[in-house]
């Protein structure tokens, strides 16, 4: 690297994509930590940034600024190159430091910059209006869900029920965001309550309308299995989105989406094992598509009575003799519960 | 003088405290009740019947036994019932349901009878008639046995029954013969007397001590049922020719198969009676042994109630065949729900209809029946679309029999639909398919 700062000098840091932002000046005698946590000298509002990502300090000879990763921070790149933990990197004029999704330019203080807004030091980006927007969005999503329920299922619900549902939903969502905020406080020194609430609102807005898809599929295709699969897929999507959003906000995981995908995969495995284990017991209850809708929604073939009865004849031909089917396992607690229910 | 006394008493009465008047009322009521109780005792007819019951009990007690199913593991009673001698060579009649646990699990139980002399003696189950709930056992030879009388009785004729209710000891009860049940798939005598648990399999006899039926079940409050002696006679003749017990699963399966064949052949060969329900003609009361009930539930009342009108027609056979405490079979039931709405939209309406579109679960544990096998489709009947679903479930011990359930819902009209729930237990596959076909063919929209 070419040395530009040949004297002990101050360091200016500004946002790469916001030339109007007032750069932050660090005097030559200071050291500086940058990260998401409030205790840093330079706080950046980036959910992908670590609580304390890097430390800037003077070299031993006081001639240069140098940069060091803190606590194996992830998502930090200097001039688009990853950094090694424990190594020191000398800073040059114009170096671009990327932390999370925020890119900072480290510049010589002699370079003139335009005066503008203060550099990105607030805690909640949306401000008060953003809070109002988040709460209103969540209420709207909950009310929308109730509205869909009214439109598609049960027209007896009234504004009182909707109010109770929205209030209860708001409380539950707040508790949920609160728990994640505590996690965030623990791992990133930043609660980000409203970020979590906004994340939950977004995920609910995406997945809630999808809740009706399995029933629709069950009717249009007459396939109970497809119904179950769709049901599980929507649950997995919900889990993936929630985990990835909340993890990114509340933890220092390097790749929150990857972790969310892994968690979803593990959950898929658990669901598959559970499905497999309960397959036998489920067979002792009729498994059929019980969704009903107007005929115009149906996409499958329509049979004549003769065709359908022929199909039933084939089903009977293919049915294994009941005597050949395994007897219930008296030692299996799940099977015992099923038998008690029967 | 009389009037004065009366006036005085009346005045006193009016002056009496309320509680004293109440006590006086109770005294009058008590005296009246005692008088009413004493009247029958004084009635010569009752005295005569009481004398007859005493004589019958004294002369017949030696040929009526308690039947006990003993749990081999614990060595204690598992089930108790009653039975009676029907031959000198040791044949004893009882109900199949008394010995069914032994028949299904001979490795777990043994059968014995406890005679009037207080002896517990071993016994062998020789033959069973599961359809009419009868069994013949072979025990020790006996000099005392019942004659069977299959001749018709007159309604109102006094008959008697013996048995050991609740293991309390051998008792005799009297009641009246009230003819055979008219709307029952299996002939049964209506006995106006109080049978109780433990009396099953006991004898019901006339004043001459001749068997006219076998105790089988109770409907409560002096409503009891007897198996007619004719079926006992038939089973007894079969048992007499047996050197070895004939209680195999195959024998039971054959009788079940023959019974359902006879019932469904009769049903399917004749024309289907129809009834009008909403805008459709539907199969109605298909047989005398089937009872139908109706109900209308108009839910359009309150502001927060769903705008859904439901007319229900529900038909089913009144009795079934007992195979085990977990498994009864031989039922046929069909139910229609005609649903209409004015204000609901299509999806709202069918979301409500969905609640009626459910398969019968039938009875029976996993030890008795295999897994369900279902098929869903949409079928077009007379230019109208119906969502249909069928489920079958085979019996483990009787592989030719299965439970069959068909549900159908008309899905063309967004404001009116008919849901059909048809279920038959212990039916052959051929009869199930034929029954489904007839139902589909008979359903017709009114033009």
Key structural traits:
heterodimer, A: 342 residues, alpha+beta, Tumour Suppressor Smad4, 2 domains, 5-stranded mixed sheet, 8 helices, 12 strands, elongated, disordered N terminus, B: 447 residues, Thrombin, subunit H, Protein Transport Mog1p, Chain A, 3 domains, 7-stranded antiparallel sheet
Verbal overview:
The complex is a heterodimer of chains A (342) and B (447). With 342 residues, chain A is α+β, with helices and mostly antiparallel strands. Chain A folds into 2 domains: 11-107, Tumour Suppressor Smad4; 129-282, no CATH class. In chain A, 46% of the residues lie in helices and 13% in strands. Chain A contains 8 helices and 12 strands. A 6-stranded antiparallel sheet of chain A has the order 2-1-11-10-7-8, with no helix packed on it. In chain A, strands 4-3-5-6-9 form a 5-stranded mixed sheet, with no helix packed on it. With 447 residues, chain B is of the alpha+beta class. Chain B has 3 domains: 2-42; 43-246, Thrombin, subunit H; 254-445, Protein Transport Mog1p, Chain A, CATH 3.40.1000. Chain B is built from 8 helices and 25 strands. Chain B has helices at 2-15, 18-42, 44-60, 96-104, 229-240, 249-269, 346-353, 429-442, and strands spanning 64-71, 76-85, 91-94, 109-114, 120-122, 124-129, 134-138, 158-163, 171-180, 189-192, 203-205, 211-220, 223-228, 274-277, 280-283, 290-298, 309-317, 321-324, 327-329, 332-340, 369-381, 384-395, 402-410, 416-427, 444-445. In chain B, the strands form 5 sheets. In chain B, strands 5-4-1-2-3-7-6 form a 7-stranded antiparallel sheet, sandwiched between helices. A 7-stranded antiparallel sheet of chain B has the order 16-17-20-24-23-22-21, sandwiched between helices. A 6-stranded antiparallel beta barrel of chain B has the order 8-9-10-13-12-11. In chain B, helix 6 packs parallel to helix 8 (429-442). At the A-B interface, strand 12, helix 7 and helix 8 of A face helix 7, strand 21, strand 22 and helix 8 of B.
């Amino acid at each position: 690297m070419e040395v530009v700062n040949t004297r002990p000098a101050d360091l200016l840091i500004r946002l790469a994509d916001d030339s109007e932002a007032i750069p932050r000046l660090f005097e030559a005698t200071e050291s500086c930590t940058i990260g998401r946590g409030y205790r840093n000298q330079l706080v950046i509002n980036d959910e992908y940034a670590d609580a304390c990502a890097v430390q800037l300090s003077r070299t031993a000879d006081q001639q240069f600024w140098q940069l060091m990763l803190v606590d194996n921070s992830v998502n930090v790149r200097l001039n688009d190159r990853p950094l090694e933990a424990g190594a020191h990197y000398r800073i040059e004029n114009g170096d671009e430091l990327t932390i999370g999704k925020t890119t900072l330019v480290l510049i010589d203080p002699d370079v003139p910059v335009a005066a503008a807004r203060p550099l990105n030091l607030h805690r909640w980006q949306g401000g008060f209006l953003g809070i109002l927007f988040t709460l209103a969005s969540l209420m709207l999503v909950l009310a929308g869900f109730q509205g869909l329920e009214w439109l598609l299922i049960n027209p007896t619900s009234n504004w009182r029920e909707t109010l109770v549902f929205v209030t209860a939903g708001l409380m539950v969502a707040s508790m949920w965001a609160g728990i994640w905020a505590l996690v965030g406080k623990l791992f990133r020194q930043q609660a980000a309550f409203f970020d979590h609430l906004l994340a939950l609102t977004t995920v609910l807005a995406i997945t809630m309308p999808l809740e009706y898809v399995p029933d629709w599929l069950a009717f249009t295709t007459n396939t109970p299995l497809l119904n179950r699969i769709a049901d599980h897929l929507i649950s997995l999507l919900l889990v993936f989105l929630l985990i990835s959003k909340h993890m990114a906000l509340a933890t220092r995981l390097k790749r929150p989406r990857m972790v969310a995908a892994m968690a979803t995969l593990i959950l898929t495995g658990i669901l598959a094992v559970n499905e497999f284990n309960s397959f036998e017991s489920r067979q002792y209850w009729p498994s059929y598509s019980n969704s009903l809708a107007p005929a115009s929604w149906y996409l499958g073939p329509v049979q004549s009575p003769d065709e359908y009865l022929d199909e039933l004849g084939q089903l009977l031909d293919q049915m294994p003799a009941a005597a050949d089917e395994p007897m219930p396992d008296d030692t299996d607690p799940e099977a015992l519960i099923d038998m008690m229910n029967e | 003088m009389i009037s004065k006394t009366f006036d005085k008493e009346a005045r006193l009465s009016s002056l009496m405290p309320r509680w004293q008047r109440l006590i006086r009322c109770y005294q009058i009521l008590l005296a009246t009740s005692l008088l009413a109780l004493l009247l029958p005792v004084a009635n010569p007819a009752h005295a005569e019947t009481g004398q007859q019951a005493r004589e019958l009990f004294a002369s017949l007690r030696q040929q009526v036994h308690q039947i006990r199913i003993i749990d081999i593991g614990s060595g204690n009673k598992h089930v108790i019932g009653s039975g009676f001698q029907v031959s000198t060579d040791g044949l004893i009649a009882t109900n199949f349901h008394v010995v069914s646990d032994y028949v299904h699990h001979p490795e777990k139980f043994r059968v014995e009878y406890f005679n009037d002399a207080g002896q517990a003696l071993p016994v062998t189950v020789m033959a069973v008639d599961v359809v009419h709930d009868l069994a013949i056992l072979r025990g020790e030879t006996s000099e005392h046995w019942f004659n069977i009388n299959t001749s018709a009785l007159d309604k109102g004729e006094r008959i008697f029954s013996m048995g050991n209710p609740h293991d309390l000891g051998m008792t005799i009860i009297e009641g009246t013969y009230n003819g055979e049940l008219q709307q029952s798939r299996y002939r049964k005598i209506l006995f106006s007397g109080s049978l109780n648990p433990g009396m099953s399999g006991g004898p019901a006899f006339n004043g001459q001590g001749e068997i006219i039926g076998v105790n089988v079940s109770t409907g409560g409050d002096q409503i009891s049922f007897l198996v007619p002696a004719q079926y006992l006679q038939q089973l007894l003749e079969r048992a007499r020719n047996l050197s070895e017990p004939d209680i195999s699963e195959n024998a039971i399966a054959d009788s079940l198969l023959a019974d359902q064949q006879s019932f469904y052949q009769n049903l399917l060969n004749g024309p289907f009676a129809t009834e009008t329900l909403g805008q459709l003609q539907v199969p109605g009361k298909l047989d005398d042994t089937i009872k139908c009930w109706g109900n209308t539930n108009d839910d359009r009342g309150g502001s927060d109630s769903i705008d859904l009108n439901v007319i229900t027609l529900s038909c089913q056979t009144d009795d079934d065949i007992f195979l085990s405490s977990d498994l009864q079979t031989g039922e046929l039931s069909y139910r229609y729900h005609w649903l209409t709405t004015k204000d609901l939209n299509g999806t709202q309406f069918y979301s409500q209809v969905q609640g009626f579109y459910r398969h019968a679960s039938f009875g029976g544990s996993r030890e008795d029946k295999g897994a369900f096998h279902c098929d869903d489709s949409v079928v077009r009947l007379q230019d109208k679309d119906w969502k249909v679903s069928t489920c079958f479930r085979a019996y483990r011990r009787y592989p030719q029999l299965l439970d069959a359930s068909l549900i159908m819902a008309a899905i063309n009209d967004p404001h009116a639909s008919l849901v059909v729930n048809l279920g038959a237990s212990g039916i052959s596959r051929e009869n199930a398919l034929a029954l489904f076909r007839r139902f589909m063919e008979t359903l017709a929209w009114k033009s």
